[in-house]
Amino acid sequence: MNATIRTRAIGATATASRDGLPEVTSETGGQLSVVTRPSAEGFNPLDLMSASLSACIVLSVQIAARREGWLDEIEQVSARVIPEKAHDEPSRVERFVTTVTIEGPLDAAKKAHLVEAAETICTVSNTLRSGAAVVNG
What we know:
Layout: E1 12-15, E2 23-26, E3 31-33, H1 45-68, E4 76-85, E5 93-103, H2 108-121, H3 123-130
Helix pairs in contact: 1-2
């Protein structure tokens, strides 16, 4: 039996006019606008980082549950991510406070197992933990 590995283009490009806000386009054509005013609804850059981490964790819990044969026991999974900025320079996020909630008849031990497994599966959390290099291309 041959397994087919499907890949997806990844990455994003942000563009902005001289005084405009960034418009972001993914490699697959997804689009969103970035906001900067504290009262503006929408995503700012730190929200996007948090969104990437939370979505990756949720997907990784689903993957882990599927591997264990427990997916039917999950009604809903959510991951709330709150970035905490460092108080010193340079400007950066010092840590991400993450709360994962799994609803369904799974017992506490199985839920904990899925959260732990998700942490090893999630590419975003693995990247943040390892401190990937940012290079100019």
